[in-house]
Amino acid sequence: MEYLYTSENLKRILKPSENPKLELSGCRICSNLPESVSKVNHPSRSEFGSFPDEVTKLEEFILIKYSWQILKCPICNMLYTDEYHCDSVAGGSEDVYLISRIDHDDALEMLKGIKAKKLLKDGARWLVTW
Ligand SMILES: [Zn+2]
Asked: Residues of the chain with pLDDT > 90: what percent?
């Protein structure tokens, strides 16, 4: 399925499901995740950070670019941004991964700021294309 990249379609995709809204504290994934959590890898020093286990339970929701995407909690539909960037540091580089909780309105604003053309449904996730 393919949709035009309009705010109406974005709103429809982001709309929380009909399930009764679950409080954050009642979600066994989200209640164990902080507001934002990061992981830093230093490949040149063979040092690798790790995320709490709950991060791996979040599902890919909207894939924007390979450097960032939006994840969704499969239990309560809470959204998270998943960003990646690479910094040059003395003696090599470090890869920084950052997961941050965002509400649906923030997600909509962020997505509206992207000059994309289409939204493609790929299984359970959405791909943004230009
Ligand atoms: Zn949750």
From this structure: 79
Q: Give the angle subtended at the CA of 18 by the CAs of 13 and 24, to the nearest 5°.
A: 90
**In sequence order, what are the residues at sequence separation of 6 or more whose Cβ sits closer than 8 angstroms to the Cβ of residue 9?**
3, 119
Predicted confidence (pLDDT) at residue 30 exceeds the cutoff of 90: yes
Measured in Å, residue 71 CA sits from the centre of ligand 1 at 11
Please give the average per-residue pLDDT across 50-59, as a whole number: 96
CA distance 95 to 4: 33
CA of 55 to the centre of ligand 1 (A): 11
CA distances (Å), 15 to each of 18, 31, 61, 90, in order? 9, 21, 12, 44
The pLDDT assigned to 20 comes to 61
Instruction: Compute the distance from residue 102 Cα to the ligand 1 centre, in Å.
Output: 12
Per-residue DSSP letters for 73-97? -TTT--EEEEEEEEEEETTEEEEEE
